[in-house]
Write a structure and sequence with these properties.
The protein has a single domain (about 10-110), classed as Hotdog Thioesterase (Thiol Ester Dehydrase, Chain A), CATH 3.10.129.10. The chain is of the alpha+beta class. The protein has one helix at about 25-45, and strands spanning about 10-15, 50-60, 70-80, 85-95, 100-110. The longest helix is centred in the N-terminal third of the chain and has 20 residues, at about 25-45. The protein is about 15% helix and about 40% strand.
């Protein structure tokens, strides 16, 4: 379970360059933030390089507008020998308001890799 009252992995303000002609933020921009947030979690958990291999169950619940604060929260859901499944949610808070609402969610799968790009165990021996 993701707690949006906790510390986000990413927090940023949506800017005009991130929006379409109607003032809504591009879904691809939001998904890239979510991928970066999941990547931070995967790299920290695996103590090394990890790459995205899948993104499943993407759901857009509400639009994000220019000037909204966007916060990305996530957590490790499952760990395999070389892979990690990470749940990610994006929340928006209008610039002059207190309450945030969930706008997008997805499940990301990452694989830990070595310097040659080959899968490696998530839990490396020290």
């Amino acid at each position: 379970m993701i707690d949006p009252r906790g510390e986000p992995v990413i927090r940023i303000t949506a800017m005009p360059a991130d929006a379409n002609a109607y003032g809504d933020i591009f879904g691809g921009w939001l998904m890239s933030l979510m991928d970066m947030g999941a990547g931070l979690i995967a790299a920290r958990h695996s103590r090394g390089r990890a790459v995205t291999i899948a993104m499943d169950g993407v759901q857009f619940h509400h639009p994000v507008k220019i000037g909204d604060e966007v916060s990305v929260y996530g957590g490790l859901r499952k760990e395999g020998r070389t892979s990690m499944t990470i749940a990610i949610e994006a929340w928006r808070r209008p610039r002059h308001e207190i309450d945030a609402i969930k706008v997008t969610e997805a499940i990301f799968t990452f694989v830990a890799i070595d310097d040659a790009g080959r899968p490696r165990p998530v839990q490396q021996e020290n």
